[in-house]
Amino acid sequence: xxxxxxxxxxxxxxxxxxxxxxxxxxxxxxxxxxxxxxxxxxxxxxxxxxxxxxxxxxxxxxxxxxxxxxxxxxxxxxxxxxxxxxxxxxxxxxxxxxxxxxxxxxxxxxxxxxxxxxxxxxxxxxxxxxxxxxxxxxxxxxxxxxxxxxxxxxxxxxxxxxxxxxxxxxxxxxxxxxxxxxxxxxxxxxxxxxxxxxxxxxxxxxxxxxxxxxxxxxxxxxxxxxxxxxxxxxxxxxxxxxxxxxxxxxxxxxxxxxxxxxxxxxxxxxxxxxxxxxxxxxxxxxxxxxxxxxxxxxxxxxxxxxxxxxxxxxxxxxxxxxxxxxxxxxxxxxxxxxxxxxxxxxxxxxxxxxxxxxxxxxxxxxxxxxxxxxxxxxxxxxxxxxxxxxxxxxxxxxxxxxxxxxxxxxxxxxxxxxxxxxxxxxxxxxxxxxxxxxxxxxxxxxxxxxxxxxxxxxxxxxxxxxxxxxxxxxxxxxxxxxxxxxxxxxxxxxxxxxxxxxxxxxxxxxxxxxxxxxxxxxxxxxxxxxxxxxxxxxxxxxxxxxxxxxxxxxxxxxxxxxxxxxxxxxxxxxxxxxxxxxxxxxxxxxxxxxxxxxxxxxxxxxxxxxxxxxxxxxxxxxxxxxxxxxxxxxxxxxxxxxxxxxxxxxxxxxxxxxxxx
Length: 661
Description:
Blueprint (H helix, E strand, L loop, with lengths): L1 H8 L3 E7 L2 H12 L4 E3 L8 E8 L2 E9 L5 E4 L13 H5 L4 E4 L4 H11 L4 E5 L4 H17 L4 E4 L7 H9 L6 H31 L24 H17 L4 E11 L6 E7 L7 H14 L2 E13 L7 H12 L3 H13 L19 H6 L8 H11 L24 H10 L2 H16 L4 E12 L2 E12 L3 H4 L30 E2 L3 E8 L8 H10 L8 H11 L3 E4 L3 E4 L1 H12 L9 H14 L5 H21 L1 H13 L10
Parallel strand pairs: 1-4, 1-7, 7-8
Antiparallel strand pairs: 2-3, 3-4, 5-6, 9-10, 9-15, 10-13, 11-12, 11-14, 12-13, 16-17
Helix pairs in contact: 4-5, 5-7, 7-20, 7-21, 8-18, 10-11, 10-17, 11-15, 11-18, 19-22, 20-21
């Protein structure tokens, strides 16, 4: 009994909690304290401190909750190698030392952490649960241990700012993951070394040759802009340039195809079957003309096969980052980077789960019921949530991606009319992103659309033709993911998917008919289109250029900051003269591998191995540094070819006359 009285008198443990952003610290504090937290200013004016009592792992605690604003520390070279003319840029790849220190402008953030940590026994890390967040967690630990070496460090892993998620995170605290942090340090070091070395080489070469002063946007002193190189940005640019070269190299070819159609009825009541030629098209005009003569001479087509089957169109998999970027980019024409900023804002306000995830399969214990029921009152798509709760629910099987860190993206709380009014004033695109996440989630939990598909095959003059018809029977997931239910109310916009009905006349085997239209149509092959941002994201994913958290940023840098590409027409990407000249110049030097995706993909694969604890970071560094040194030697030996390419494209305006990369 005396021991129990002693335990009751023990003071609470003082716990420092650190989130990656001030808004997350504020929201988690509000959720855990049920709105009863107090706040004060700390050493950093932008990182407030919230305080409230809580019980963690059976211990009474005084929770002190603050934040950082992204990375607190960064990698850089020592002063001896920071100046542009202090060394041969080649030394930056391998010889120069790299140091990690508190970033300029983040001193007050670090002071805030040290001051609060000095009075705390525990440190709970609430950084975003991805590799980058894990690295920031180790930066926070490093800084806090400077004032409290023995502080106990624990990691909270969460995917949403809901009550269930944050309380579950506190009940399942784990150790920080040093492998994931080491992987980020390794990638940052490679990006610093390679980016600095090749950027200095490009820029100084063009300045000293006099070409930089003649480029668009040159400074008044004639030095010109920095001609940047990025290990991810150059392969991103390479995709854009290679597509442009594919278009330039395209040689149009004439072709001919037979068009056969049959209509039954008149006007609006007409039913038309468009038959596709089994040969599709021919590039030999004489042969096409001879075959068409035989078809026309037959006079009538004969039905050789007729059949109908049930066809299904399946709902999308649960939502991951890349799919969110691609689908929203197509639908609302907003850049992937802007989409991520909007999604981050919604996440920090507690409306959606963590938006940076590769996972497209919900865990087995996911609470579908609560997530669906909270959307019942929504005036646009609440009807579909009610339908799912009334027996139309289908548990989504999911795709094949799981990053082991976060579930797919889903809505975590309903938005009120007041929330909508706030979003309209702040940025109406917030509504687009929120509603897309809601509609995609509901669609993924729905039954597939069902149609009756009819196929008719005919023969005429020895040639075979086929027509297909489609009659939608059940919209199901398309009610919420398409334009809305069949009755037309409510009408949903934009539509993210569709399936149109296409009825054709009824036929029986052996039936003969005279075509309504029969013609030999000429055509000409077309080059592929310029890449869209959606196409570019798909290529980056396929070749492992960047991660779901960084791909949008790489595109923005290539198109925006660097000026290596620009948007044209219907959201298409065209390289600028400088962007194309850089790829051409590197190709002439035998270094196309610097903008082709293979080298970066190998580095990304090694980074993943380090993050899983399967490879030492030092080994991964050496794997990447060796080829980079070889490439730099190639630059030094053939640098005039880069000067010539930039001169031809950007000064003389000759461009590239076809060819591949």
